[in-house]
Design goal:
The complex is a heterotrimer. Chain A is mainly alpha-helical. Helices cover 71% and strands 2% of the residues of chain A. Chain A has one domain: ABC transporter involved in vitamin B12 uptake, BtuC (Orthogonal Bundle), CATH 1.10.3470. Chain A has eleven helices and two strands; from the N terminus they run H-H-H-H-E-E-H-H-H-H-H-H-H. The longest helix of chain A is centred in the N-terminal third of the chain and has 30 residues. Chain C has a seven-stranded mixed sheet with strand order 7-6-8-9-10-13-14. Chain C has a five-stranded parallel sheet with strand order 2-1-3-4-5, with helices on both faces. A two-stranded parallel sheet of chain C has the order 11-12. Chain C is globular and about 70 Å long. Classes of the chains: A mainly alpha, B mainly alpha, C alpha/beta.
């Protein structure tokens, strides 16, 4: 197999990790009408929650992951109650700035409690399997599988369940939906809970793949932002596609450009795409 | 204490200039620029490299401003066709790409080492009280730029920008050169940020790529929003308040004996975050809300 | 308030870094505290290194003050976080210099910060000593107000190269470095020595900081079939890199700096992944009384690459002040630094030992926890032997010494 396939696969895995927060970011943006920068710190929170359980009570990484989903969802809900609910009717930029403040706070609360040292889970690193000339790691397959599975669940939720449909209605036109009796606050609460959980789960994956420190989420925010925009804000499959593309482009780009320009490649490509198709891949935002 | 306050005031002045530049783009023309730091960096680096290479400041400085404005115009022509959210990410990306360029192309920019021993203007003349001289220079520049931008705001161009910001489609239908005006406004804002960069580089006598991280662009936004976006006085006030907050928390921490080290630093930053959130909830229009109409 | 109570209070507040009272409130001139500043990265990219450095300095000052201070005057510490950011560092330094009136700033870390505060300190005649590695730190006209306890990059590169070249089985060598001000110069020195010894440099790559994975960088380097990969980075990125190398089933050798391959690294990647990783660094004097005293005073400090240096930096500043016979200023420190740290002289391993001999009028030569601390004219540490270790069964074991 030519080496480029390995780069593509590497990119797919990176994209898989980006996909969860990208979906959360994208859907919340559509629903609440502002880019929520705190999403990247939900990643960090989730990773640390799992760390506490994994190290503290010797929970298995699976249990720790599930707990991270629940706790991060709750944290996101709390943040929404305290910081964003008083500002529902405000202009998006005020909310965006407030979300930056929240991100600051969350990152530093983590730093306050655990310090700057990076940590790792009690999970052994495994050698990759060699499949058709490609190096494929067990953990990476797991991450990809979970990401795709969660994506499918999210899409099914949005399309089939009442709450999901209500969510989409509110995202399309909040006033109209409210007039028709859709419980807006409940919809927002559900979306926030779900979005927080997604990001928290992704944080655990990131911690497994790399390591855990207070800055871990912040490093991804630009890629997450880019993936969401590329996929078209408000579309879960779009965000997944966007994340995969960002991941692949960053990795494959290494063949052409020095590794120190990795982040830059992503931006350039995205700029090019947006010039051609401004609404993004699955863009539906009016 | 005086020397410390002089230094802080100088840095506040530099930040105020960048914020004024951002206000031209956002406050006057309604353009989202999350990469303000990029034009700041272009101004700083161009002037630094030229000056260190022997170019007299009289030529280096205008060249630096010109290059910053040109970069702004270039980016605007490419990116202004996009919608607001997209413009945001593109400008943010531009800031990052520029920083990586500064970091990696060491043959031109000295890379991660940065540019040291940047000559300071008129240093020989004012050796005793150079910091005071520099503060006066910065404050004078802020005053001149502020007055100039107020003129622009009241001028036909300024009114046109306001019209475009309120309703672009109406303005276009009325036959106004919308796109060209936006590019000009963006370039003007970029040039002002470039001026700030020049003053910054020659003050510290040292520049390196990590001084221009994306979060610096966010700080400029914060200053603008805090002070009251859409007006130049707000831009100045916001810069003072923001840096005051950052430096104030430095002294506040000295009064908290039971926290040390990382905890203290984290607490300092939590304080900044809390103030931000509270301010957004309680007073989102900023300290000096924009007055309707020209005044 | 009696003088005794005030001094005890000052000693206590010295460790907490409190600004209890401005110098104006102290009436006893000869008991006035000596202000010293620390400027460490407590947040930002260098955040995992700052806290231990600050702790070391605090421990030294505690000991000195408990024993009566310097010529009867206690030391008072003022701590600032530089946020691993040059502009924030400048603001912090200005506060330390103009408000707290420190005579020295110790334990700086990032080269960018040290370079940015250098001109201010030289102008204000405040002595700066840190661990920053970029070559330009000690260059230029700094009039002796700057020094560092970390060997300069070129020397480091050559020493690593010498070791790599000494192992004949490493014929194909790849170099990977984190993007820092010294990646380039270290790489040139390292690859130069390796090539001169007849080995091939198969790839040379600089990677970005703060990336969650380095899979593709690893793919690229492994495609060139190296026997040895030299990774010049810090612990956080080395952890990620090591994991990615392991996952990619790399079976060759890895060489890295010991400040990256420490207990935190081993804990982070696990014993299996860390097995066999070679690492080297300027040899701390493990057997020296200074290192022993440091290890006892700073729990966990021996796991930090920079904490021993911070310990030495503070001790050196204190000894230089003690040699100043009553006068206290940055100029005094710079004038007496080499007097107390360089040979000839009686070897001393702590402030207590050194100050006793200074009072007797003897010439001392401080040998520190991080090394023998001998400085050249521009403030660089004189060449020193390097210790080579290898991780075996989850622990770093000393294997050999490389001499310059």
């Amino acid at each position: 197999m030519p080496p480029i396939a390995q780069y593509v696969f590497n990119g797919v895995v990176t994209g898989g990790i980006l996909a969860l927060p990208a979906v959360a970011f994208s859907l919340l943006w559509r629903l609440l009408r502002f880019p929520n920068f705190a999403v990247s710190t939900y990643l960090t929170v989730g990773a640390y929650v799992a760390l506490v359980l994994n190290h503290g009570v010797r929970a298995s990484i699976e249990m720790a992951w599930l707990s991270a989903l629940v706790v991060t969802g709750a944290v996101a809900l709390g943040v929404d109650r305290i910081a964003f609910r008083p500002m529902r009717s405000r202009r998006p930029f005020s909310l965006a700035i407030a979300s930056i403040g929240v991100a600051f706070i969350l990152e530093n609360v983590v730093r306050f409690v655990w310090g700057n040292d990076f940590r790792s889970y009690d999970v052994p690193v495994s050698r990759a399997m060699s499949v058709a000339g490609l190096r494929i790691g067990r953990e990476q397959l797991l991450i990809l599988g979970v990401a795709v599975g969660v994506m499918a669940l999210a899409q099914a939720f949005l399309l089939r369940t009442r709450l999901g449909i209500a969510m989409r209605a509110t995202a399309d036109n909040a006033l109209l939906a409210a007039a028709k009796g859709v419980p807006t606050e409940r919809v927002i609460a559900a979306a926030t809970l779900g979005g927080g959980a997604l990001a928290g789960g992704a944080g655990v994956f990131l911690g497994l793949d790399a390591s855990i420190d207070p800055l871990m989420g912040g490093g991804l925010i630009i890629s997450v932002f880019a993936a969401a925009i590329l996929g078209g804000i408000g579309s879960a499959p779009g965000a997944l596609a966007g994340a995969l593309i960002v991941g692949i482009v960053e990795e494959v780009g290494m063949l052409v450009v020095p590794p120190t320009y990795k982040t830059a490649i992503g931006f350039v490509i995205i700029l090019a795409v947006l010039l051609v198709r401004p609404t993004g891949l699955a863009g539906a935002r009016t | 204490m005086i020397a410390y306050l002089t230094a802080i005031a100088t840095l506040v002045g530099v930040r105020a200039l960048v914020t004024l530049g951002l206000n031209v783009q956002w406050g006057m023309a309604g353009l989202v620029n999350l990469g303000a730091v990029a034009f700041f960096a272009v101004g700083a680096y161009t002037s630094a490299l030229l000056a260190v290479g022997g170019t007299p400041l009289l030529f280096a400085w205008p060249a630096a401003v010109g290059l910053a404005a040109a970069a702004g115009a270039g980016l605007a022509m490419v990116a202004l066709r996009l919608r607001e959210d997209y413009l945001a990410i593109v400008t943010l990306g531009f800031g990052e790409v520029l920083r990586l360029f500064l970091l990696n192309e060491a043959w031109l920019t000295r890379g991660a080492n940065g540019v040291t021993a940047i000559p300071r203007p008129l240093h020989a003349q004012f050796t005793g009280h150079y910091d005071v001289f520099y503060l006066v220079l910065v404050l004078a520049t802020v005053a001149v730029v502020y007055l100039a931008l107020e003129r622009v705001r009241r001028s036909p161009f300024g009114r046109l920008l306001r019209a475009i910001r309120e309703d672009e489609i109406v303005a276009a239908v009325a036959g106004k050169p919308v796109f060209r005006c936006k590019v000009q406004a963006f370039a003007l804002g970029a040039g002002v940020a470039g001026i700030a960069g020049i003053l910054f580089a020659h003050y510290l006598a040292y520049v390196e790529p990590n001084m221009f991280l994306p979060q610096e662009s966010l700080f400029v936004w914060l200053a603008l929003i805090l002070g009251g976006s859409g007006n130049n006085r707000g831009a100045l006030l916001g810069s003072v308040v923001l840096l005051g907050l950052l430096e104030g928390s430095r002294f506040a921490k000295d009064l908290i004996p039971f926290l040390t080290g990382v905890r203290l630093a984290a607490a300092q930053q939590i304080l900044v975050g809390v103030v931000l959130v509270v301010l957004m909830i309680r007073r989102p229009e900023g300290l000096l809300p924009e007055k309707p109409g020209a005044s | 308030m009696t003088t005794m109570t005030r001094r005890q209070l000052l000693q206590a507040s010295g460790t907490a870094g409190l600004v209890l009272s401005a110098p104006a409130l102290l009436s006893a001139q000869s008991k006035e505290p000596i202000p010293i500043g620390t400027l460490c990265p407590l947040t930002g990219a260098g955040g995992s290194y700052g806290p231990d450095m600050q702790r070391s300095v605090v421990a030294v000052v505690e000991r000195i003050n408990n024993a009566g201070g310097i010529n009867g005057r206690p030391l008072q510490l003022f701590h600032e976080d530089d946020q691993t950011n040059a502009e924030a560092g400048v603001r912090a330094a200005r506060k330390l210099i103009d408000v707290n009136r420190v005579v020295a700033i110790v334990a700086t870390w990032a080269s960018a910060v040290t370079l940015a505060v250098k001109p201010l300190c030289v102008e204000a005649r405040v002595f700066v000593i840190g661990v920053s590695g970029a070559d330009s730190v000690t260059q230029g006209d700094h009039k002796g107000f700057i020094a560092r306890t970390q060997p300069n990059t070129n020397l480091q590169g050559r020493m690593y190269g010498k070791f790599a070249a000494s192992k004949k089985e490493w014929k194909r060598v790849a170099y990977m470095a984190l993007q820092t001000p010294f990646a380039q110069s270290f790489g040139e020195a390292f690859t130069g020595v390796v090539k001169a010894a007849g080995a091939t440099i198969t790839d040379s790559l600089i990677y970005e900081d703060k990336k969650p994975s380095y899979r593709s960088e690893v793919t690229r380097v492994l495609a060139t079939n190296p026997d040895l990969i030299m990774i010049e980075g810090y612990t956080p990125d080395s952890v990620v890199m090591a994991k990615d190398l392991y996952r990619a089933a790399y079976k060759g050798a890895v060489l890295a700096p010991s400040f990256a391959i420490n207990a935190k690294f081993i804990e982070g990647v696990g014993a299996e992944v860390a097995e066999g990783v070679w690492n080297m660094d300027r040899a701390p004097l493990f057997d020296s009384p200074a290192f022993k005293e440091f290890s006892a005073a700073v729990p966990g400090g021996d796991q930090s690459p920079y904490a021993p240096q911070a310990w030495d930096q503070m001790t050196l500043v204190a000894l230089a002040l003690a040699a100043g016979k009553g006068e206290v200023s940055g100029t005094v420190i710079k004038d007496h630094l080499r007097t107390v740290s360089n040979p000839p002289g009686t070897a001393v391993y702590s402030f207590a030992e050194g100050t006793k001999l200074i009072r007797e009028g003897k010439k001392i030569n401080y040998e520190g926890a991080s090394g023998s601390c001998d400085f050249d004219q521009i403030g660089d540490i004189l060449s020193a032997p390097f210790i080579v270790q290898q991780v075996r069964k989850g622990k770093n074991e000393r294997v050999t010494i490389v001499n310059p």
